[in-house]
Specification:
It catalyses: a 2'-deoxyadenosine in DNA + S-adenosyl-L-methionine = an N(6)-methyl-2'-deoxyadenosine in DNA + S-adenosyl-L-homocysteine + H(+). The chain is an alpha/beta fold. It has 3 domains: 149 residues; 291 residues, Vaccinia Virus protein VP39 (Rossmann fold, 3-Layer(aba) Sandwich), CATH 3.40.50.150; 31 residues. The chain contains 19 helices and 13 strands.
């Protein structure tokens, strides 16, 4: 028999989950699967539970309103199920409590629910219907884990959880499993690095933000949240967000991430950006106010011959072709080509782009065209898949006059704290982020931290952008009071002599 909750109280204590409560549930879920099961199954169950609970509260609100309008109870029930009252077409048979009613058929019910939701809701196609719980539970151990996960998520309702809180929970899962997935080659950009980049670029309502290597959507979500915090949610909805991701599984996670955060005005496409960019206009690339990314570092297989097989290569790789062993400068050139004539680009990339010989020709041309505004050396051990420090490069296609033929170098190698959870890793704390962002905004010299360097000096250094050539952290030196120190040393020496005299006396008595 189908179940439907008719007496939902969104203001009740059970309906209001805090961030810590959500994370507590997800921590228990993480403990259940450990490293034996792909963490994506936690995310899909979280997403499905949210959709189900939200449909129920939408139903309840529409039902109550129909009764107030004078409809009989049965008429109100029929009315409250109409699609216009709901974000998604969600058949009753797939509501959470109905799915878990027959434990033995749980894998089949979940798989059917996800497949049907993908068919009924075009914006969920290739998002929820990519997970096969039947195949997942072929092992007896996994079947038991699935039952435990479903019961864990059944303990509380997720309908009255704010998108920010639930979104933070979703991000917590990605963050929690990042060290393990890094060993398998997955790239996870620490959210504090993303926050720094977005803080620097400072997008505003009605502007566009594009991430050509969008992963799980962290850059775009951070841009949305930045505008939301500065201007309010209504203005954040006026931000135009675009992303492209090559991996279909990762793209599905990204779309779920957007739904969980209740970010609807976003376009996400699947495809190989370096060869087949999806965003086009007037038979060329679509242009954006901001282009941001943490592309795969030193990606192989994108030499000249490969890139010339792609679309718009003449308009994108105008400064030359990278080595086949590292696509870093291919990514950067695509990003610069995708920016408006007054646009900015922010890229998190390997330090090698700053000084390696194979990138010198492209580096020189970009510098001579006065596109690079700022180079930021990050602390080491921020990233899960490498101990290398990494760099943020900021390109400005419309530099103000006072910045022309100059580059700001920021050495933020000492701006970190120990990671609170992962040994041997570091994080950027809020004060670190603010200090770096202030230095970028100020565009001025600060001893041992930031320096505005004229292009002529960079030419003299053979277009080497290694930050430590231009800014080196100050070494703290302790002022020593020589006279005082000398007196202290003399006193120590006297004590030693006295002790030796007394010891010698004891030895003489013994002999």
């Amino acid at each position: 028999m189908l179940k439907l909750v008719y007496d939902i109280q969104p203001s009740s204590e059970k309906g209001n989950l805090s961030r810590s409560e959500i994370e507590s549930i997800l921590m228990k879920a993480a403990d259940l699967i450990r490293t034996r099961v792909d963490y994506k199954y936690i995310l899909i169950l979280l997403f499905l539970k949210r959709l189900s609970d939200k449909w129920e509260i939408e139903y309840q609100e529409a039902y109550d309103e129909a009764l107030e309008d004078g409809l009989a109870e049965e008429e109100a029930r029929v009315e409250a199920k109409r699609d216009e009252y709901h974000d998604f077409n969600f058949p009753e048979k797939f509501l959470w409590d109905n799915l878990r009613e027959d434990v033995d058929e749980l894998p089949e019910r979940l798989s059917e629910a996800l497949r049907t939701l993908g068919e009924l809701n075009p914006n969920l196609k290739d998002v929820v219907d990519r997970s096969d719980f039947i195949q997942f539970t072929e092992s007896r151990e996994n079947f038991k884990i699935l039952r435990q996960l479903v019961e864990l998520f059944s303990q509380r309702k997720f309908y009255n959880v704010s998108p920010d809180v639930l979104g933070n929970g979703y991000e917590w899962v990605l963050h929690h499993f990042a060290p393990e997935k890094a060993k398998e080659g997955e790239v996870y950009t620490p959210r504090e690095v993303i926050k720094l980049l977005i803080e620097i670029l400072d997008p505003k309502p009605l502007q566009s933000v594009y991430d050509p290597a969008s992963g799980s959507g962290g850059m775009l979500i951070s841009a949305y949240n930045h505008v939301k915090e500065e201007y309010g949610e209504d203005e954040a909805r006026k931000l135009f967000l675009y992303g492209q991701e090559a991996n279909r599984e990762t793209l599905a996670l990204s779309k779920m991430n957007m739904f969980i955060h209740e970010i609807r005005d976003v376009k996400l496409n699947n495809g190989d950006t370096l060869l087949y960019p999806k965003y086009r206009k007037n038979k060329g690339l679509k242009k954006f106010d901001f282009v941001v990314a943490n592309p795969p570092w030193n990606q192989k297989g994108y030499g000249e011959d490969e890139l010339k097989d792609g679309d718009f290569w003449k308009k994108r790789y105008t400064y030359g072709f990278p080595t086949a062993n590292s696509a870093d400068w291919a990514w950067i050139q695509h990003m610069v080509a995708s920016a408006e004539e007054d646009g900015k680009v922010g890229v998190v990339i390997d330090n090698g782009v700053l000084f390696r010989s194979w990138g010198k020709k492209i580096r020189r041309s970009v510098l001579e065209d006065d596109l690079i505004e700022c180079v930021i050396l990050l602390p080491e051990k921020l990233f899960y898949n490498t101990g290398a420090p990494g760099t943020i490069l900021v390109f400005n296609k419309d530099k103000p006059k006072e910045k022309e033929d100059k580059v700001l170098f920021i050495n933020a190698s000492d701006e970190y704290e120990d990671h609170p959870e992962v040994r041997k890793l570091n994080i950027l704390a809020d004060e670190n982020i603010e200090k770096i962002a202030e230095a970028y905004r100020g565009f001025e010299n600060k001893e041992g931290f930031s320096r505005v360097v004229p292009l002529e000096e960079i030419r003299e250094n053979d277009y080497n952008l290694n930050v430590t050539l231009y800014v080196f952290p100050e070494i703290e030196r302790e002022d020593i009071d020589i006279e005082k120190t000398w007196q202290e040393l003399k006193k120590i020496e006297e004590n030693i002599n006295q002790n030796e005299f007394e010891i010698q006396g004891f030895l003489n008595e013994l002999s």
